[in-house]
Design a protein that fits this description.
By secondary structure, the chain is α/β, with parallel strands linked by helices. It has ten helices and 16 strands. The protein is elongated and about 70 Å long.
Length: about 375
């Protein structure tokens, strides 16, 4: 991914403490419009808010007609409901106290349609016990394992039986099927399409069997960002990309068919020059996601830079251009993985017209808000 740094440069940079994360709402809105165009209808979209965790962005999605969303945590679900989402899916099977927390949250927001996922009979029983006797029934989707091997039940007889159990569980009603194929990241789109096809066929067959048995299947929610263009071609399914709202260097490099704009940038400063050809930045593990190998951030001003060491507060780069960047120089970076990077910051700066205009708290980075 080739990116210039001009859009990231801010007139008030000398006054901004680093490291910090900056978001650019005009670029975010353009990404949302591109999502809608690819989906064909905002009603098909159920974007994952784990990427940004920001109420203002949920509200922006709602203004553009995207009223549904998906969440990873109950805190994210509460944030989305409070920001105006009409439908909120908790995409993590609620177990232990989380079953009761979700039910309490649903009761606190009666105008919001909440749903969640299950893949286990015991978890279904626990959720039913928590929801039974409530004024409204909680919608439950069956989470299907379509090859990622992280959560879900493999499509087949056991999955059909579990879906039938949802339909008879007190306090619950069947909401459809959920299939996440985040392991499919082939660089060429048509290769992704071919790789997704076997699982699509299995899920379609299972849906047909459920309908034939008289069970309602209101929706099938498919995929994330890499397979967004794959499933967007198929009518009758909902789509749940997330990363494309802010975009990042990893998907920009690996998914050239997706034309989303980087809409979040890290500002960092050179704090030392430890020897010839090296720069030390104040961009440690606590400011940029570090769960993957380097490069963890892409610097348009330093395309030749190689990471040497990375620790809690420091990132040391090796570059032939080190002499051109005195101590105190501001550099601009695109995170390789934006979702966990956002979660490292308690607030983001908001830039419009080439300068920062406000700060937004990253509300849903917390594990618990009120519920």
């Amino acid at each position: 991914m080739s990116v210039d740094a001009d859009w990231m440069r801010l007139a008030d940079e000398p006054a901004l403490a680093t490291p910090t994360l900056v978001v650019f709402p005009e670029r975010i809105e353009e990404n949302l419009r591109r999502m809608i165009a690819r989906a064909g209808d905002p009603a098909r979209l159920r974007p994952h808010v784990k990427t940004h965790k920001l109420p203002a962005l949920v509200a922006l999605q709602v203004r553009l007609g995207i009223t549904r969303c998906k969440c990873a945590t109950i805190a994210e679900a509460e944030m989305a409901a409070g920001a105006g989402a009409a439908e909120v899916t908790l995409a993590a099977q609620p177990v232990g106290p989380n079953a009761g927390r979700l039910v309490e949250l649903a009761r606190a927001f009666p105008a919001v349609r909440f749903s969640t996922l299950v893949d286990d009979p015991g978890a279904l029983a626990g959720l039913s016990a928590a929801a039974a006797g409530g004024a409204a029934m909680l919608e439950v989707l069956l989470d299907l394992d379509v090859g990622m091997g992280r959560t879900g039940i493999v499509p087949g007889p056991a999955a059909v039986d579990l879906y039938a159990a949802i339909a008879t569980a007190p306090g619950l009603r069947p909401g459809g099927l959920h299939a996440y194929d985040g392991h499919l990241r082939q660089r060429v789109l048509e290769e992704r399409v071919a790789a997704a096809a076997p699982a699509v066929a299995r899920v379609d067959a299972m849906r047909a069997e459920l309908v034939a048995r008289g069970l309602p299947v209101p929706r099938v929610v498919w995929g994330g960002t890499p397979t967004f263009p794959v499933h967007a071609r198929r009518p009758g399914v909902e789509l749940s990309p997330g990363t494309c709202v802010l975009w990042d260097a990893g998907y920009g490099a690996g998914l050239p068919d997706l034309d989303f704009l980087p809409a979040a940038a890290l500002l960092t400063r050179v704090i030392s020059r430890p020897g010839t050809g090296r720069l030390c930045l104040d961009l440690g593990h606590k400011a940029v996601a570090s769960e993957m190998p380097h490069p963890r951030v892409m610097f348009p001003e330093l395309p030749d830079a190689l990471a040497v060491t990375h620790s809690e507060e420091h990132l040391v780069l090796e570059t032939a251009r080190a002499a051109d960047f005195p101590v105190g120089t501001v550099l601009h970076g695109i995170p390789w993985h934006i979702c966990p990077t956002v979660a490292l910051h308690d607030r983001v700066l908001v830039a419009r017209g080439g300068r920062t205009v406000e700060r937004w708290p990253v509300v849903a980075r917390a594990r618990r808000l009120n519920f």
